[in-house]
């Protein structure tokens, strides 16, 4: 049985031109792996002094003192996680609410342009958000929001202490605005992809539109919605400029949200050019390495969830 | 009793959807607020000087950001030299050779992950690889950081637009006796060209606004930077530096620069959308 | 009336992965006649003609075995270059697919230009191709307009002109009229009728009336097998095989 070659296989093309183009383009595609590996390697090699000196204590050390060569990253981890946490706490319900409105309620001619406008929010550069943050958000938090919070919830430790406007809360709010488009855009897409039959089944049972949305539509799209949250989280974790402009840049861990703080990306941005000796620089690079690792893991998770959604909808299409 | 329950459910329905409407209003409102505020504060400070003059010595009012505008242009040029070939050719692979195989899947996954790496980490990478050996800040270092950031988006968007080219065109060409590589180069790519170009423009506009990776690669410069191996001013870094400084005049200029940057980016985004009608602004 | 054989298939088998879509097809297609390939959906008729110009193997996991002799030459012989073979065999697809970035002129000339052949007589080649496709009069003043600006029927004739411009030895058509209105269909059928003086034509069609109208010979496929092959007149009036008769009288399909 003589077989004709299957052109789906690698490098089995009949002529040299096809093979050459295949190899050329494959080479460039594979460079992604090389690049990621190179980045990891460069980060590791340039943080080695700090890794060797502090080991794992680096991650829970609370002192960041370049003068006495003491480097502990906990304040930054704390700041990054708390500000991102606040951001997601605000952005997730908000973004999901918008997504629900756009997918379940708004007619197509309204939903598409609004979705586009919200995507434009994602195109605004971080430094512009920072600009608005410094000159608009900070005064607003200090003068308008703080008194209200103190009057109503001032007994809570998270709202204790003086408020200078810059601080964890402000950073969290600004980050929330920056990541809402990610949650909205992706959630809207997966919600719209839920088959009409799901909605119809619920409605036929006598459910209201809202009950349908809550019990039939959103759970069906659950993986995609979670995926959007992780994507937003990854984005918030790595956000640099806007955060450093409003977080206060003080490497301290405090209970109050009004207190100034610091984030991993912000300390790198601020102190990198001030690092006058090697250990200092390596400590900063090590923070970069931690950031690198954390965002990779969160992103990998987000992508897996999104893939799961794609697979599911492909299966359902009978 | 069930009548009451039903009324309650209807009310809840109304309330919840009203909330979602308010959320939408709020979010869209924020966008218009940012735009409006930027225009209000920045437009008054935009003048001929801004585009043509160099920054004045620290503390002196006046001057402009001509060097930063040119600097951003230089950085984008270098970034494009790196990001476009790699992204474009990689995207050709994924669409024309790697649609259904293991390698294609892994490359896609890795690209999406690379995309999520914070820009400041890219800055550190460029610092260790370019600035340290060269012992100086340079446009090249900044351009490399931005170029690497361009790759994942250029790659995925090229792939997406090439996949949009209908298979029947490939078949028509192959059936004429045109080999696959010529089919790709002379039929598929030209057909998808408009989309690919738009994707690259969007990609460029995105990295044009990046500040963090430039802070310790291109650094900054209060004068013109000759050539490619000097510290180079850029619009985003200027905005940052000026906004955190204590001078009112600098704040004014920061608004102007912010407005210019924002307008540029929004312009590219809106035009791209008009040209294409696809969801691209986010690079997700 | 004796006719020479243009295409001869011997034990032609084809697979999509594990799916055996063509089973031992032995068929003799005469030269300079119109041969129609008919059968219900999924019977393998499209796969069959795609095996003739070696397009089938472009799909992932596709396999072919057996011999296909075009004018006596086995196109699946070990050293055969599929690219050259496709050049010698023209194909027109179900949906018209002119190249959108090219004008009418450039579309017809595509077979030469995309291959880097810069011929001095390209103008004549284009005109000849368009005349053969009965499209010249309609487009001769609009040669620079985009290929996609023509109507559906015109686009399909443009694709025929494009295929003919490279002087193929035979012409394969895969349901060329299924996306066209009856008037455009009639024009193409008329065109094929005139082309058979020069070219061997194999046309896949699910429209039995069309097959009965224009073909000289017809082959009936069912589930990957060639059930019956005969002169069209005989096959459509007094088919030898009961399955053929059932299909033609509409009992299934």
Please explain how this structure is put together.
- The complex is a heterotrimer of chains A (318), B (284) and C (253).
- Chain A has 318 residues and is mainly α.
- Helices cover 73% and strands 1% of the residues of chain A.
- Chain A contains 13 helices and two strands, in the order H-H-H-E-E-H-H-H-H-H-H-H-H-H-H.
- Chain A has helices spanning 16-45, 48-54, 57-60, 74-105, 108-123, 126-153, 168-192, 196-204, 209-220, 222-238, 241-246, 264-271, 278-316; strands at 64-65, 70-71.
- The two termini of chain A are 36 Å apart.
- Chain B has 284 residues and is an all-alpha fold.
- The longest helix of chain B has 42 residues, at 2-43.
- Chain B is flat.
- In chain C, the strands form two sheets. Chain C has a six-stranded mixed sheet, with helices on both faces. Chain C has a four-stranded antiparallel sheet with strand order 2-1-4-5, covered by helices on one side.
- In chain C, helix 7 (182-195) links the parallel strand 7 and strand 8 (200-204).
- At the A-B interface, helix 1, helix 4, helix 5, helix 6 and helix 7 of A face helix 1, helix 3, helix 4, helix 5 and helix 6 of B.
What's the β-strand tally of chain B? 0
Largest interface: A-B, 98 and 97 residues
Shape of chain C: globular
Rounded radius of gyration of chain B (Å): 24 Å
Distance between the termini of chain C: 33 Å
pLDDT under 50 segments of chain B (min length 5)?
Answer: 279-284
The helix/strand order of chain C is EEEHEEHEHHHHEHEHEEHH
């Amino acid at each position: 049985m003589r077989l004709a070659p299957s052109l789906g296989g690698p490098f089995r093309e009949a002529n040299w031109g096809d093979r050459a183009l295949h190899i050329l383009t494959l080479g460039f595609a594979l460079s992604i792996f090389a690049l990621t590996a190179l980045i990891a390697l460069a980060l590791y090699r340039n943080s080695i002094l700090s890794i060797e000196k502090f080991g794992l204590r680096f991650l829970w050390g609370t002192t960041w003192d370049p003068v006495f060569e003491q480097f502990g990253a906990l304040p930054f981890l704390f700041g990054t996680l708390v500000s991102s946490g606040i951001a997601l706490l605000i952005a997730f319900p908000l973004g999901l609410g918008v997504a629900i409105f756009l997918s379940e309620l708004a007619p197509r001619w309204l939903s598409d342009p609004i979705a586009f406008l919200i995507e434009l929010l994602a195109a605004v550069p971080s430094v512009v958000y920072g600009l608005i943050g410094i000159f608009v958000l900070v005064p607003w938090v200090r003068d308008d929001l703080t008194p209200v919070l103190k009057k109503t919830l001032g007994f809570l430790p998270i709202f204790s202490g003086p408020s200078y406007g810059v601080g964890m809360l402000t950073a969290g709010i600004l980050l929330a605005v920056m990541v809402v488009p990610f949650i909205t855009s992706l959630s809207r897409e997966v919600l719209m992809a839920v088959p009409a039959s799901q909605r119809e089944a619920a409605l036929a049972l006598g459910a209201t539109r809202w009950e349908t949305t809550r019990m039939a539509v959103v759970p069906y799209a659950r993986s995609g919605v979670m995926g959007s949250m992780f994507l937003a989280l990854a984005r918030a974790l790595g956000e640099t400029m806007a955060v450093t402009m409003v977080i206060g840049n003080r490497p301290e861990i405090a209970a109050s949200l009004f207190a100034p703080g610091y984030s991993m990306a912000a300390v790198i941005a601020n102190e990198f050019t001030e690092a006058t000796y090697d250990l200092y620089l390596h400590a900063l690079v090590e923070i970069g390495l931690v950031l690198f690792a954390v965002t990779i893991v969160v992103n990998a998770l987000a992508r897996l969830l999104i893939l799961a959604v794609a697979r599911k909808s492909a299966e359902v299409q009978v | 009793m069930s009548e009451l329950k039903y009324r309650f459910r209807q009310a809840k329905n109304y309330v919840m959807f009203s909330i979602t409407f308010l959320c939408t209003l709020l979010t869209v409102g924020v966008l218009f607020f940012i735009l409006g505020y930027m225009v209000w504060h920045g437009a008054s400070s935009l003048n001929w000087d801004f585009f043509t003059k160099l920054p004045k010595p620290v503390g002196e009012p006046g001057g402009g950001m001509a060097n930063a505008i040119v600097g951003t242009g230089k950085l984008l040029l270098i970034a494009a030299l790196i990001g476009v070939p790699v992204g474009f050719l990689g995207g050709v692979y994924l669409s024309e050779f790697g649609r259904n195989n293991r390698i294609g899947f892994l490359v896609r996954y890795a690209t999406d992950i690379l995309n999520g790496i914070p820009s400041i980490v890219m800055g550190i990478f460029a610092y260790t690889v370019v600035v340290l050996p060269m012992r100086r800040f340079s446009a090249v270092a900044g351009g490399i950081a931005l170029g690497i950031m361009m790759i994942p988006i250029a790659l995925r968007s090229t792939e997406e637009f090439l996949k949009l080219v209908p298979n029947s065109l490939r078949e028509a060409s192959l059936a004429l006796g045109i080999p696959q590589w010529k089919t790709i180069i002379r039929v598929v790519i030209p057909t998808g060209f408009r989309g690919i170009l738009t994707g690259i423009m969007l990609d460029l506009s995105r990295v044009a606004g990046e500040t963090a990776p430039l802070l310790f690669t291109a650094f900054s410069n209060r004068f013109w930077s000759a050539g490619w191996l000097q510290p180079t001013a850029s619009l985003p870094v200027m905005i940052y530096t000026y906004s955190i400084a204590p001078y009112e005049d600098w704040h004014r200029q920061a608004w102007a620069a912010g407005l210019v940057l924002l307008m540029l980016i929004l312009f590219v985004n809106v035009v791209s959308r008009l040209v294409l009608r696809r969801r691209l602004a986010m690079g997700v | 009336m004796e006719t020479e054989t243009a295409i001869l298939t011997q034990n032609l088998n084809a697979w999509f992965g594990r799916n055996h879509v063509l089973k031992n097809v032995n068929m003799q297609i005469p030269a300079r006649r119109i041969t129609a390939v008919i059968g219900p959906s999924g019977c393998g008729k499209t796969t069959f003609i795609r095996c003739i110009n070696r397009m089938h193997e472009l799909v992932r996991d596709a396999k072919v075995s057996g011999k296909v002799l075009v004018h006596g030459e086995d196109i699946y012989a070990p050293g055969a270059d599929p690219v050259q073979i496709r050049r010698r065999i023209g194909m027109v697809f179900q949906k018209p697919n002119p190249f959108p970035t090219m004008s009418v002129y450039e579309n017809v000339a595509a077979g030469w230009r995309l291959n880097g052949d810069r011929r001095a007589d390209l103008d004549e080649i284009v005109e000849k191709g368009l005349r053969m496709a009965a499209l010249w009069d309609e487009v001769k003043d609009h040669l620079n307009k985009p290929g996609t600006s023509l109507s559906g029927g015109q686009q399909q004739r443009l694709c025929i002109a494009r295929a003919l411009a490279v002087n193929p030895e035979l012409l394969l058509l895969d349901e060329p009229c299924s996306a066209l209105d009856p008037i455009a269909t009639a024009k193409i059928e008329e065109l094929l009728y005139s082309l058979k003086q020069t070219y061997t034509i194999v046309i896949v069609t699910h429209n039995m009336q069309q097959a009965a109208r224009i073909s000289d010979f017809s082959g009936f496929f069912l589930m990957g097998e060639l059930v019956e092959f005969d002169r069209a007149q005989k096959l459509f009036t007094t088919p030898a095989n009961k399955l053929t008769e059932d299909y033609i009288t509409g009992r299934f399909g």
